[in-house]
Each structure stands twice: as C-alpha cells, then as structure tokens.
Amino acid sequence: MPSRNPDRGVSVSTVLGRRLGSELLRMREALNLKQAHAAEALTASVAKVAKMERGLVPMRDPDIRALCHLYGEADPAVVDRLLELAKADRDRRKAKGWWNQYPQLKGQTEYFALEEIATEIRTWQLAFVPGLLQTPDYARALAVGNGSWEDLDEVELFVEARMARQVRLAGERPLRLWAVLHEGALRQTVGGTHVMREQLEHLLDMSRLPNVRVQVLPYIAGAHPGMTSAFTIVSFAEPGALDVVQADTTSTKLWLESETDAAHHNVVFDRITRLGLAQQNSARLIDGIRKEM
C-alpha cells in the first residue's frame, strides 16, 4: 500500500508531476537556493521537497504559492499555469480527467492529461495525420488498420476519445498547433479514397484557424533530419519552461523529459520546418492530392 504520510504523499511518479517538479527545480536553482530553503518555506522536510521536484507526490496549491513567493515569481500567468498543472496532476492521480472514461486507452492517458494543460503542440508526423486534425472516419480506419482492437465497440471509444481531444483547438484559450506532415502521410490511402478526400478537406479547413499551422515536407525535399522517427513537443506558457517530448514506438509511448532531449528535438523540428513548404504552398499541395483522389 502507498504511504499515507502527508509529508511523503503517494510515491508514484507521473509525467505531469515530473513536469511540475522540473519547473520548481529550475526556479530554485536559478537563485542558487538549496532544498533546505524550500523545505523551510513549506515547514516540511527536505525529503518532501526532493520528492516534489522528482514528481513523486501530488502538490498542494498553498505549497506551490509559497515556493513561487520564495523564488520571486510574481507573474500571475506563471503561477496560475503551475497551479493548473498541479490540479491536472492531482486529477490524473485520482482518475478525474475526461480521459479516464476510456480505460481501453490507458497507454495514452498520460499524454491526454498533459495535452489538456499545454499551450502549444508541435508535431512531426511521417505516416499519418496527427490526432488533433483527424476526422472520425480517418481515426476509425487507423484504429482498425493497426489491429490494436478487435472489438468494434472499443474502436468507437478510441474514435470518441480522439474527437474529445480536438476541443482544445477551440474555446477562449485554444491550443496552438503546428503540425508538419510528410507528403507520404497525405498520400497513404487510409480508409479508402472517400475517407482520404474528406480528411484532406478537413485538414485544409483546420489550417485556416488562427491557432493552427499545417506544413508539408514534400518528397522533393530529399534527405532530412526527421527520417528516423515522428515526435511531438508539448510546450507550456512560462518563458524558459522546459518542453516535454513524446515519441511512439510499436509497443509504447516514449517520454523524453530532459533539457537536452527537448533542445535536440526543437532543433530537429526547426530544421524540418525550414525544409518544408510554406503554408500557402502546403495548402496547394494538400488540395492537389485531394483532387487526385
């Protein structure tokens, strides 16, 4: 049984907890403060601060406010974002997020929870249209094609969850999305030509949103730094905040959370975008492929 000691909390590391802990750690080290200083501000043990910074325990709002005060962080937007991240982590641990309605997708719920409180997503895709831009029929065809589910009811739950994610692209604080797709992903006939035509038309419609940028890397670009794998960079509002990188393998989702990994993938993404077509030319290519189908 996990410990119920309030000073130690439930010692389970989560992506969201590590994300929040890394932010607090960065703020502390920028001022050359020790964990003992943070512990004194919280009237807690150094062990608790260490667990907080490693994402091993859920964080209370008063603790976050106290640490922000200690670290001299007075920007309400930064503090609110940290509080939002902490709440998302607590909800994730207590299974309160909308994504927990879909236990069949448990391998993806960490990403859904992180995406829910992100401000920007940059994604590079080699083989398919990213989930935030998929139509229901396209998502359904992918789910059937990859063979992960044999039960058609589970396929429908997968599609329902994917559509639920797309709400983040609308509303008062819409998620900023920059999607770069290889031309091959647009020509891969997922679900047949009718499904693909609708998907490409939807992609064009979404690219007209002010918070969505769609770019295509054409075949003629030749060799490029994104040939080995697809990946997604999840970013937050705070200036200097460390990004989180997620990459898929055939069996799992790989989280890359170090500053070095984030910096490397940002460089790779920038290089890919420089080789890609401009937005207007990308739209022309997408529309041309749609007409060919």
Describe this protein's structure.
- Helix 4 (61-70) packs antiparallel against helix 5 and helix 7 packs across helix 8.
- The N and C termini lie far apart (57 Å).
- This protein has helices at residues 15-30, 35-42, 46-53, 61-70, 76-93, 109-116, 136-146, 152-165, 183-187, 193-207, 259-275, 279-292, and strands spanning 120-125, 176-182, 212-217, 231-235, 244-248, 253-256.
- Residues 1-10 have low confidence and may be disordered.
- It folds into 2 domains: 15-96, 434 Repressor (Amino-terminal Domain) (Orthogonal Bundle), CATH 1.10.260.40; 103-292, Endonuclease, Chain A (2-Layer Sandwich).
- It is 49% helix and 11% strand.
- The chain has 293 residues and is α/β, with parallel strands linked by helices.
CATH architecture of the largest domain: 2-Layer Sandwich
Terminal CA distance: 57 Å
**Main β-sheet, spatial strand arrangement:** 3-2-1-4-5-6
Portion of residues in helices?
A: 40-55%
Q: Which stretches of 5+ consecutive residues score pLDDT under 50? A: 1-10
Number of helix segments? Answer: 12
Please report the first level of CATH classification, the CATH class of the largest domain.
Alpha Beta
Mean pLDDT across every amino acid position:
86
The topology string of helices and strands comes to HHHHHHEHHEHHEEEEHH
Q: How many structural domains does the protein architecture include?
A: 2
Supply the helix-strand structural class: alpha/beta
Query: How many strands?
Result: 6
Question: What is the percentage of strand-forming residues?
Answer: 5-15%
Named CATH topology of the largest domain: Endonuclease, Chain A
Instruction: Determine Rg (CA atoms, Å).
Output: 21 Å
Shape: globular
Main sheet summary: 6 strands, mixed
